[in-house]
Records
---
Amino acid sequence: MSGPIEDEIRLQGVPICPGVCVAKACLFNDARHNQLTPVVVTEQEVEGEIERLQRAIAAAGVCLDEIRDRVAREMGPAEAEIFVAQKMMVNDPGLGARMIAAIRGEKAGAEMAVMTVMDGYETRFRVLDNEYLRERASDIGEVKRRLLDALAATRPGLRCEGAAHCERGRERVVVAAELTASLTVDLDTDRLRGFVTEHGGATSHAAILARALGIPAVSGLPGIHSRIACGTELLVNGDAGEVFLWPRPETVARFQRQLAASAAPVEAVEPVPGFRVMANISIVAEAALARRMQAEGIGLYRTEFEFMALGRVLTEDEQYQRYAALLKTMDGRPVYVRLLDLGGDKPAPYLDLPAEANPALGLRGARLLARRPDLLRTQARAIARAAVVGPVHVTYPMIVDVAQFRALRALFAEAVADLPAADIRHGVMLEVPAACLNADALLREADYGSIGTNDLYQYVFAIDRNNELVAGDFRLDHPVFWDLLAAVVAAAGRQGKPLSVCGEMAGWPEYALRMRALGISTVSVSTRLVSVVRRTLAVAKPPENG
Ligand code: PEP
Ligand code: MG
């Protein structure tokens, strides 16, 4: 049910992905599951509550079947297995009986019964000695969430206008606390209209995902959940970071041109001579779009997103299949596979790492790989096996100095020593200030460098890339920052090594232009921005020295 018709309200947030859309909201709110207040039902309500629970169990089962089929189709049968296991859990008669007993015996509402029983199981699984079973604890949490979602859809008044989850966000603006990789698995990403999130800055990983999907997105609107109902009409202006609740017809009319432009499919634009535009991807499936956009390679494959999307560590074979498929799709064009950059704001709960007070400065990227060589070893083998399909560039994330790069590269070499020699280049992300200040030494050692402006800016200016409260202070035109970029370009020139920029700012045409003027001739940007960047660069006057 949509809320009563109200007058237009304009909210100002942070622009995340350009474009404009008008559509109904679909609320995705995991948080509500943690904020359930205990409901005690009366004797007369008990049977109704049990019926609600049973309907929710059936609906969650149907939903899991759908996800299993889709994941099997889009990602492969191994990835779909997890949803088969979750379905078995949902249908486990023992589990159902315990929930019913909680409703009958303790007069708990169906939601509370689900919470109490599932939390009990989860806690018991988390302390088991067997690692495999311990990992199943996160499945229990996931099943709990699904049951609670299904229950929300059976409660009168809270129903979405579509089916549960508004049919996975189809033709809707998804409103969520934060956009996560696992949320994108839940949604029908091909038919989403927009994203509005409470948290996340313009270079946050959520923003990167939104840009990969190419739909208008605005972040930094805390509390938006409590202001609207599922089905509330929204106008999202991702160009200016504004969201209109209950937009008036004259407001919609004012955006007519942008609405039409955003709805049109992205067209490929011919490569610009002398300036290579490659694509950043988070999952292998995006490579097909990169080809359609005529991207001159994959400049950054953020392999950790595959782990984040499935919520677990991928096996060597699973990784190999992805890398081989990517190289095949790119058919000889350059492919830069970045080693796992987990940790920090890319959490990996399944790795069972200690809690950190300051994760951005903790076990992340290169440091995490050094701590968990098993992860690096598995990935190295998968990459080396795939490299028979085509040449690969392997990029090391969050490198701070030569010693660290050497150590990880040696681990890589050791892991693949028994495999046939393959054409693999080894390069570094230049995204930590220490690495950029010492770019000469690093580039002497490495085969190439790639500047990660998202983290570089964050660490140079001590500003959280994920925090919408400081998004306004993210002044990417700051001269100190450009001086540092210029110094890195000069170092690459001195060392005669290729250099690219793969941070988000390369996808903003005005910055891409400035980069070209600085002597950078390769950038890698969100797939859907390849054309946007080329369009601007094609008509701008090339630099004198170009
Ligand atoms: C960067 O930091 O600029 C980068 C490209 O890496 P990520 O955004 O994945 O941290
Ligand atoms: Mg980075």
---
Amino acid sequence: MSVLVTGGAGFIGSNFVLDWLAASDELVINLDKLTYAGNTENLQSLQGDPRHVFVPGDFGDSALVANLLAKHQPRAVINFAAESHVDRSIHGPEDFIQTNIVGTFHLLEAVRAYWGGLQDSARQDFRLLHVSTDEVYGSLAKDDPAFTETHRYEPNSPYSASKAASDHLVRAYHHTYGLPVLTTNCSNNYGPYHFPEKLIPLMIVNALAGKPLPVYGDGQQIRDWLYVKDHCSAIRRVLEAGRVGEVYNIGGWNEKPNLEIVHTVCALLDELRARTDGKSYREQITYVTDRPGHDRRYAIDASKIERELGWKPAETFETGIRKTVLWYLDNQSWVANVQSGAYREWVEKNYAGRAA
Ligand code: NAD
Ligand code: DAU
């Protein structure tokens, strides 16, 4: 038995592969294009492990995917591969259209052909699990109820629009061709191996480097935060018992304004790695021009996955964020290695001239 994972060298994908192989001996075929966000160092502990087959390549390369499917005969495909950063989608939407929409389409075609050729019982058992985001539902006002699975799609950024399009394609392949799909829409993840272009790792890394902590706008935008290992356990549960064709929202019941997140990170660093001048890392907070089209609030109603599949997050925000800050303190060489010239160019592009 095996599963094919796409994007398994990225933040969530690599956590998923590591957790999967910690709990099971089932072979993982890991197909990742190794864009700037893909990092084989995340998978270093699996070096020489015959249960992990890493394949550098594009999930939109139908011939490559067809070959992998034919060779390994996986019982499931779990699709993490995507361009994932909203700010990058604002600076350059084209990669998002190509990867998230066209790439997903090619993957669906290859998977449909493979699934169509399976014997009865393998055909019945097969699943394609598509990993998506709460951002497809758009933005909530302060007192609106949290997003349920039936909330209408109102994506506001090129990133969320491209993810919404991929969700629609996945849905259509189920309704039209009967492809046994599952879709998950999750809130903001945080934890080990999070690329430091995203809020939490950026704040940790900048704080330790004595750099400004750039808060967009008034810092009162709200996100729901979920520790990445909880996202991975939810995906495993949906794959195991989710009803074919269904959508499951995944969230941490942890709505917090960005500024509170930044204050929490500063307080943990003050405790665990105090500044040499005795001042708080909060001194480094800088308000910068807001993200264009910035969604004000996301909130996930995760009661369906709890009711139907018995899944609940194991971490509170307090336990998860402490683990995360400790991980970054203990893995400074990982941080140094991902801060390549390309990373520095991105930081310059996104933050230059933005001081509010
Ligand atoms: P990430 O940017 O860290 O990783 C994406 C991975 O996909 C990288 O390893 C990259 O090399 C790979 N990739 C990109 N294009 C590819 C291609 N054409 N073929 C094969 N591999 C390719 O992203 P992440 O944060 O780990 O997110 C993973 C998935 O989860 C995405 O689909 C994202 O939309 C979704 N998601 C993310 C979050 C979050 O908070 N990070 C929350 C909900 C959903
Ligand atoms: O909600 C799920 C989504 O969460 C995923 O689908 C995306 O892939 C993932 O990147 C994430 O999107 P966000 O835009 O919410 O995450 P990000 O870490 O970029 O930003 C979180 C919040 O922090 C957002 O309101 C913008 C703000 N922010 C971000 C950065 C990078 C800042 O204030 N300053 C910053 O420097």
